[in-house]
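Risk register update: the risk of archive-format incompatibility is retired. Evidence:
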Amino acid sequence: MVKVEIVEEKEHDSRSPYSSAASSRTSSSVSLSSVGSELDGEESFYERIVALADIIPRPPLGKTAGAVKTTGKVVGNLVWILTTSALLIGLPLALVLEDEAKIVQQEKEMLAQQQGAQQSKPPVPPGF
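Archived output:
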């Protein structure tokens, strides 16, 4: 079972606009207008409008701009897939094919050497 207990604050900060001597549990008697009025002299109307531009979201893009953006993302993804596939599959495959070509070339050279050695030997007379 949960027991709820209200704890009263002992110290009240008189400088804070949020604290008051009255009970804040029942109603809010302090408004924020006193806090906002302090900044009126320091900030111009233009600065406030510029600050609002950061808060308000930009309007959605037009159909053409949205299509270009989507197409760009798709093309980028395809390029990424092709390059990574080429590196992960194509490069090892090319290395294996190169090694196999070297082995075939060595076999041809050995076969040519054997044939050359057999042709250079004089025929063995019968009876030896």
